[in-house]
Amino acid sequence: MNAMTETVPHAREGETLIRVKGLYKIFGDDPEAMMGHVRAGMGKDELQERYGHVLGLQDIDIDMKAGEITVVMGLSGSGKSTLIRHLNLLVEPTAGVVEVDGTDVTTLSVEELRRMRRERMSMVFQKFALLPHRTVVQNAAMPLEVQGVPVAEREAEARRWLDRVGLGGYAESWPNQLSGGQQQRVGIARALTSNADIMLMDEAFSALDPLIRTDMQDLLLELQAELHKTIVFITHDLDEALKLADHLVILNDGAIAQQGEPQEILLNPADSYVEDFVRDINRARVLRVASVMDPHDPALAVAGTVEASERLEAVIAKAGGDTSLAFQVEEEGRPVGTLHMRDLVRALVPREPEGG
Amino acid sequence: MAFYDRAFDALGLREWCDGGATGGPMTMAELLARSRGEAAGDAPFSLPFPSLDNLHDACGAIPRTRDFTAAIEDGFLAAKDAIKVVLDPLTQPLSWALDGALELFTWIPWWILIPLLVLATWGASKSRGVTLFVALSFLFLGFVDHLDVAIQTLAIIFVCTTLCVLLGVPVGIAMSKRRGLRGSLTPVLDLLQTLPTFVYLIPLIFLFSVTESKLYGIAIILYAIVPVIRLTDLGIRLVDPAVTEAADAFGMTPGQKLWKVELPLALPNIMAGINQTIMMSLAMVVIASLVSAPGLGVLVLRGIRNLELGVGLLAGVGIVLLAVMLDRASKAALERVDRSEGNA
């Protein structure tokens, strides 16, 4: 039983587990023939107009690290749902490589692919995609049923995860008796029951009310702190992306606009598209002290100490709104930097477009 | 027909026409025309429709329409033996099933059969009203001495519907999975559904002896199988794509997907198709009495042939009762399926 519950990542934490390299996806009658045009630099609009093919994804390179949450963010039509479906090959790439643990998934046989989907990857869907003719516990046990685990064992495991996501009392209910948030908890429990180390979440919280969504995000972070899955999370909501992401990828029209550490993207947007995106964000809530602090200056008079991981919002409250103060920044009890309140205030204002 | 005479002359085909003249027996129309003395000398500018018969008058080498229908018949008769060699053994089990069911159903004494059927209705529908209606209907049919014929009709419907489901559901599944198959089967299904019911019987009468039960069995199955095929196909294609995607994402095999996801979710539609199939077999079993299908239809036919109004109408009422019973029972079963899937 214990072996089943313990996640055994093949790549060690922090190492690249999923590598997407030079990935292209073209929709149309003869996508391979279009690759030449695209490689020669033909844009999405021209390809659509002249050849009637849609360029879904172009030249995607992402390294997703084991035990991290990689968030892919983009507006609808940016190709993010197509991208996540390449990872378990629900959609086949036109060109490029998707490696999981160094194995190119496009080279797998049908049988090997099925095994990978069963044992390595679970998925959570925007519309929950529960089986309406089965009870909650049967739904949650489905991944193990597919693997041929006996009913008593798989339902015990399913119940354990239902308890964990706060649905202990609903095991015998039908999915349509639950609210949206509860149904998605079943979706998450189902994904966890499969005991796969990779979790694909396709706009998992987008269909939920804002308050429920926040709850679910907290639940996910809580589970992640405990389980250290490799999570690929798709969203169109930047707040959600910034809250969850260890690594953030911003997609625009099928191409990567920018990727990196979320704080870094927020402070240094690569282009006007990303800049527009991050403008409306409540920076005080997202940015952390470590992102705006200066190197440690022991000579400076400070008003107190703050943690490097603290959000700016908390520091403003601590300073009582006084912008003339400075704080000593500490990490695990050691001083690591100095925070001037005026730097903090400056960081709250989005960078103006250069030359604009 | 002077116009076409001149036309063939002008084209220089006169020789070919006369050379190939078949003569042949005189048609009734020609005979009538001759007896009225209208054989020759019609108006110089009359232009009859260039039909086979009219052209034949001008040019003997062209066949008449009745030669054409005779050719169809000859062709069919020529192919008949070959078709029979293949079809006969294939369809023989159908005869056995029909004969066996008829024998079994009429052999069981009424005091076992009626409770059994009422219990089956209860099992399928779990509805008190429907069960009571079925019980009363059977008692009424027994009371007016129509129980035996009604049971015969029921036995035929039972066998044919079972076969329709056994054949139709797999075909429907295959159609839903293969676009090409759907494209080629759809016109066939359209044809089967629009062909007037009597027309089915014509080729079948030539192929099989009227004493064989499979003759009407095949007619009923061909006519009634369409809805169960169509609605199975539709039901599977209507399954929420998000759910089938989830099935793929968790690594289900195509077989697991079919049995655990697609068929259960398509079940309400399949049941609706079965309900239609039952009703259409009932419609056809009445007409099939023309080709010796036993049951209530025989009495209706007697009513028509001998102008026995009372006999025909009473049998008609019996058919209506059967129809309502089958419809209500299968619909109640369908509703139960719907409810248990939580769609209510």
UniProtKB/TrEMBL annotation, chain A:
<keyword id="KW-0813">Transport</keyword>
<dbReference type="InterPro" id="IPR003593">
    <property type="entry name" value="AAA+_ATPase"/>
</dbReference>
<keyword id="KW-0067">ATP-binding</keyword>
<comment type="subunit">
    <text>The complex is probably composed of two ATP-binding proteins (TmoW), two transmembrane proteins (TmoV) and a solute-binding protein (TmoX).</text>
</comment>
<dbReference type="InterPro" id="IPR005892">
    <property type="entry name" value="Gly-betaine_transp_ATP-bd"/>
</dbReference>
<dbReference type="GO" id="GO:0015418">
    <property type="term" value="F:ABC-type quaternary ammonium compound transporting activity"/>
</dbReference>
<keyword id="KW-0547">Nucleotide-binding</keyword>
<dbReference type="GO" id="GO:0031460">
    <property type="term" value="P:glycine betaine transport"/>
</dbReference>
<dbReference type="InterPro" id="IPR051921">
    <property type="entry name" value="ABC_osmolyte_uptake_ATP-bind"/>
</dbReference>
<keyword id="KW-0472">Membrane</keyword>
<dbReference type="Pfam" id="PF00005">
    <property type="entry name" value="ABC_tran"/>
</dbReference>
<dbReference type="GO" id="GO:0016887">
    <property type="term" value="F:ATP hydrolysis activity"/>
</dbReference>
<comment type="similarity">
    <text>Belongs to the ABC transporter superfamily.</text>
</comment>
<keyword id="KW-1003">Cell membrane</keyword>
<dbReference type="GO" id="GO:0006970">
    <property type="term" value="P:response to osmotic stress"/>
</dbReference>
<comment type="subunit">
    <text>The complex is probably composed of two ATP-binding proteins, two transmembrane proteins and a solute-binding protein.</text>
</comment>
<dbReference type="InterPro" id="IPR027417">
    <property type="entry name" value="P-loop_NTPase"/>
</dbReference>
<feature type="domain" description="ABC transporter">
    <location>
        <begin position="18"/>
        <end position="278"/>
    </location>
</feature>
<dbReference type="InterPro" id="IPR017871">
    <property type="entry name" value="ABC_transporter-like_CS"/>
</dbReference>
<keyword id="KW-0997">Cell inner membrane</keyword>
<dbReference type="InterPro" id="IPR003439">
    <property type="entry name" value="ABC_transporter-like_ATP-bd"/>
</dbReference>
<dbReference type="GO" id="GO:0005886">
    <property type="term" value="C:plasma membrane"/>
</dbReference>
UniProtKB/TrEMBL annotation, chain B:
<keyword id="KW-0813">Transport</keyword>
<dbReference type="GO" id="GO:0031460">
    <property type="term" value="P:glycine betaine transport"/>
</dbReference>
<dbReference type="GO" id="GO:0015226">
    <property type="term" value="F:carnitine transmembrane transporter activity"/>
</dbReference>
<keyword id="KW-1003">Cell membrane</keyword>
<feature type="transmembrane region" description="Helical">
    <location>
        <begin position="153"/>
        <end position="176"/>
    </location>
</feature>
<feature type="transmembrane region" description="Helical">
    <location>
        <begin position="104"/>
        <end position="122"/>
    </location>
</feature>
<dbReference type="GO" id="GO:0043190">
    <property type="term" value="C:ATP-binding cassette (ABC) transporter complex"/>
</dbReference>
<protein>
    <submittedName>
        <fullName>Glycine betaine/proline transport system permease protein</fullName>
    </submittedName>
</protein>
<feature type="domain" description="ABC transmembrane type-1">
    <location>
        <begin position="150"/>
        <end position="330"/>
    </location>
</feature>
<dbReference type="GO" id="GO:0015871">
    <property type="term" value="P:choline transport"/>
</dbReference>
<dbReference type="GO" id="GO:0005275">
    <property type="term" value="F:amine transmembrane transporter activity"/>
</dbReference>
<keyword id="KW-0812">Transmembrane</keyword>
<keyword id="KW-0472">Membrane</keyword>
<feature type="transmembrane region" description="Helical">
    <location>
        <begin position="129"/>
        <end position="147"/>
    </location>
</feature>
<dbReference type="Pfam" id="PF00528">
    <property type="entry name" value="BPD_transp_1"/>
</dbReference>
<keyword id="KW-1133">Transmembrane helix</keyword>
<feature type="transmembrane region" description="Helical">
    <location>
        <begin position="278"/>
        <end position="301"/>
    </location>
</feature>
<dbReference type="InterPro" id="IPR000515">
    <property type="entry name" value="MetI-like"/>
</dbReference>
<feature type="transmembrane region" description="Helical">
    <location>
        <begin position="188"/>
        <end position="209"/>
    </location>
</feature>
<comment type="similarity">
    <text>Belongs to the binding-protein-dependent transport system permease family.</text>
</comment>
<feature type="transmembrane region" description="Helical">
    <location>
        <begin position="307"/>
        <end position="326"/>
    </location>
</feature>
<dbReference type="InterPro" id="IPR035906">
    <property type="entry name" value="MetI-like_sf"/>
</dbReference>
